[in-house]
Amino acid sequence: MSINLINKALRYVYLHGYLYRVIDKRHKDYVRQLRRRGGPVRVVFFAMSVSMWRYQHLYELMLGDERFLPVIVISPSIDYNAEQQRNDVQALRDYFNSRGMPYIDWNKGTPADVKGEINPDVVFYPQPYEKLLTPAHDVTAFYDRLVCYYPYAFWTSTGKWSYDFHFHNLAWRLYYSTKYHQAEARKTAWNKGRNVRVVGYPNADDFLRGKYSDVWKPIDDKPRKRIIWAPHYAITPKFGLIARSMFLSVADGMLELAKSHPDELQIAFKPHPRLLTELYAHPEWGKERTDAYYRAWADGCNTQLETGDFIDLFMTSDAMVHDSGSFAVEYHYSLNPVMFLSSDIEALLATQGEIGKAAYKIHYIGNDMADIERFVGDVVMAGHDTMRNWREWFFNEYLLPPGGKSVAQNTLDDLVYSLFVEEDE
User: Fold this and answer.
1) What is the dihedral of CA 327, 328, 331, 337, to 10 degrees?
2) pTM for the whole thing?
3) Nearest Cα to Cα of residue 65 among 422, 355, 425, 408
4) Largest interatomic CA distance in the chain
5) What is the Rg, in whole angstroms, of the alpha carbon atoms belonging to the chain?
């Protein structure tokens, strides 16, 4: 047996035979120490990119609660190329500065010593993956604290990959969106979802606020249908799966669709944050072609490039075309018609849980430019939308936070109860 196999076997035994079994006790011991220490609970929110920042409202609630001391730390994904990291960091600075929010900035040479300087009690992490951020900020450095997590997307997939990573079993609190996600965790995770609390989907607080900024490029007074195109980043097959994204086959066609309808359409290109990195590495694209393509969307008379937040974009649009997992649910907050692109929709549905299957079935389905053009012409422009009632049903069944409260308030209520009220067993 090789050394690698022996090490993997030993790690498995350590995690499943020991650490997963004692982590609950460690968490309870830490909470006891917090209560004895007194003073505010120090909370760190790691901010990786604007599009994956989910903690705005919770952060604001904590600012007004003397029991908490919240701190934002900017730290981009080290899995992205250098240019995308720079873009993400600058976008976060702009976002927080525009709101007058203090933060600890990113310095690639010497990233902030969060553990030494802030010594957080609670850490909110942006994704459930280890080795995501620079080692000093990576979640593996904070499993001795109380790690919390909002899903960065409205999760629709099922199985181990979605609910049973080391992170899922070692985190203190997983704040999930619905009772259906909790049921999946109870069925799939090694710890049976003991650390899951249902609070609603964090972006719901923005989707449901009722007032939205018009983020569309001003052109003239002529009314146009506003369409979002949101391609996923998985442009090549991986792990034995087909390429999820249809970007390579429709990229030129989508740009031409906008150019050929300057008086009827306005199209926003909303790529997954990772798509830029994937295209830079693609043998047929590379940096020069990719940059030129992104510029074409940014500079077109009736097109625009959107790489940041998307709430206002969604809620002021008329329709969307995409192949993104989370957007398959999130766009239904708008109640607008939406097309999902897939070369094998049945294979995709086989990976989905109850919510995912329901979300995709109220999409119009396409797999090439001809399908997109029919959707735009018949459904968006002519108004022949046959799925409106089904989307309204989905909205009421799955998208509203529980308890009639905001997601942030549900989360804060659980934190207060868990840290200050709940009695030890």
Assistant:
1) 140
2) 0.80
3) 408
4) 72
5) 22
Q: In the numeric block, which tokens belong to residue 252? A: 């030129």
> In terms of C-beta distances under 8 Å and separation of at least 24 residues, what long-range contacts does 132-136 make, across chains too?
132/48, 132/77, 132/78, 132/79, 133/46, 133/48, 133/75, 133/76, 133/77, 133/78, 134/75, 134/78, 136/111, 136/112
Strands (E), 167-311: 173-176, 196-198, 225-230, 265-269, 303-305
Structure tokens at 43: 């909370």
Where residue 283 falls (left for φ over 0; alpha for ψ -120 to 50; beta otherwise) is: alpha
Q: Which residue matches tokens 């295209």? A: 279
What integer pLDDT is reported at residue 239 of this predicted model?
Answer: 44
CA separation for the pair 241, 41 (Å, rounded): 43
Query: Hey, where are the domains in the chain?
Result: 3-207+402-421, 225-399
Count CA atoms within 13 Å of residue 355 on its CB side. 27
What's the one-letter identity of residue 369?
Answer: M
Q: CB 268: neighbour CB atoms within 10 A?
A: 25
Same fold, 3-207+402-421 and 225-399: yes
Segment 148-173, tens digit of pLDDT = 999 888 888 777 888 999 999 999 99
Q: For the segment 38-69, what is each residue's pLDDT rounded down to a tens digit?
A: 999 999 999 999 988 999 999 999 999 999 99
Architecture of domain 3-207+402-421: 3-Layer(aba) Sandwich (3.40)
Q: Which CATH architecture has domain 225-399?
A: 3-Layer(aba) Sandwich (3.40)
Cα separation of 180 and 12, whole Å?
29
pLDDT tens profile 258-304: 999 999 999 999 999 889 999 999 999 999 999 999 999 999 999 99
Assess whether pLDDT exceeds 80 at residue 10: no
Mean pLDDT over all residues of the chain?
Answer: 92
The reported pLDDT for the residue numbered 240 is: 45
H or E element in which residue 71 lies: strand 68-74
- Tally the residues of the chain: 425
Q: What secondary structure does DSSP assign to 227-256, as a single string?
A: EEEE--S--S-BTTB-----HHHHHHHHHH
